[in-house]
Each structure stands twice: as structure tokens, then as C-alpha cells.
């Protein structure tokens, strides 16, 4: 089992920044590809970004490319999502997820472990 706990959400103005963190515990963190998803009210859970277990390769949804940066610190068992140039449409609950493999994907069903989510609200 892997336990995931997100933090760092909150309220930001359009154009502002937030940094999300996801702390993992329970298993060897470096064995897991990690990802961030988000879910707005009444919508499906959408892929935001993922990072391979080594941290060498990263992937982004087109909607966040150039604005968000995913990173991980395997020594601290933590994955991060730096969000810059925030837009009101970024408002959602953000979830981190873990997959026991080298690389993740964009389909939520590929991830076995999830955090409880953290709310990000962006005002215009």
C-alpha cells in the first residue's frame, strides 16, 4: 500500500502561483510513477501531469503546458506541482496518484493509489 497526502492548495488570483506537494509513505517511492489529476465540479477527473519514477521524463496536458511544472524528490518521498500563470479554469480539486511502473499515463484507471485531494480556486 502507498499512502498519499496532498497539500498546498488554496485561493489564488488569476496570474498567480501555487505549489502543490504530495507526500508518499508506505512503500519505496522511487518504484512509482507519479501523476497529478484534477476534477472540477460536475466534470470528469482529468490528467494534468505525470513524471517517471526516475524523474527524468515529464508529461503535461496541453492546457497546462508551459505554465505547470512537475518534479519529484525521491529522497523526501514527495512529488510537486508548481503552478504559474493560473487561470480561473484551473479551479478544481487536485489529486496526486501513484502507479507501480516506470511511467504513468493519462488514464486515471491506470493508477492504483490516490490522495484525498486539495482544492485550488483561482479568482478572476
Structure description:
The chain has 124 residues and is an all-beta fold. The protein contains no helices and 11 strands. The protein has strands spanning 3-7, 10-13, 18-25, 33-39, 45-51, 58-60, 68-73, 78-83, 92-99, 113-114, 118-123. Strands 2, 4, 5, 6, 9, 10 and 11 form a 7-stranded mixed sheet that branches. Strand 5 and strand 6 (58-60) form a beta hairpin. It is globular and about 40 Å long. The mean pLDDT is 96.
Helix content: under 10%
Radius of gyration: 13 Å
Helix and strand element order: EEEEEEEEEEE
Low-confidence stretches: none
Report the strand count. Answer: 11
- The fraction of residues in strands falls at over 45%
The overall average pLDDT, rounded, is: 96
Shape: globular
Structural class: mainly beta
How is the biggest beta sheet arranged?
7 strands, mixed
C-alpha termini separation: 40 Å
- Total helical segments: 0
Q: Any descriptors?
A:
four-stranded antiparallel sheet; mainly beta; 124 residues; seven-stranded mixed sheet; single chain
Layout of secondary structure:
Elements: E1 3-7, E2 10-13, E3 18-25, E4 33-39, E5 45-51, E6 58-60, E7 68-73, E8 78-83, E9 92-99, E10 113-114, E11 118-123
Parallel strand pairs: 2-11
Antiparallel strand pairs: 1-3, 3-8, 4-5, 4-9, 5-6, 7-8, 9-10, 9-11
Amino acid at each position: 500500500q502507498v499512502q498519499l497526502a496532498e497539500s498546498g492548495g488554496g485561493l489564488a488570483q488569476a496570474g498567480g502561483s501555487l505549489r502543490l506537494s504530495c507526500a508518499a509513505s508506505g512503500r519505496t517511492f522511487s518504484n512509482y510513477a507519479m501523476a497529478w489529476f484534477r476534477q472540477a465540479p460536475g466534470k470528469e477527473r482529468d490528467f494534468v501531469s505525470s513524471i517517471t519514477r526516475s524523474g527524468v521524463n515529464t508529461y503535461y496536458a496541453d492546457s497546462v503546458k508551459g505554465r505547470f511544472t512537475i518534479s519529484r524528490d525521491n529522497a523526501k518521498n514527495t512529488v510537486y506541482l508548481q503552478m504559474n500563470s493560473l487561470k480561473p479554469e484551473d479551479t478544481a480539486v487536485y489529486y496526486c496518484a501513484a502507479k507501480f511502473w516506470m511511467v504513468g499515463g493519462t488514464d486515471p484507471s491506470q493508477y492504483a493509489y490516490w490522495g484525498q485531494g486539495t482544492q485550488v480556486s483561482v479568482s478572476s
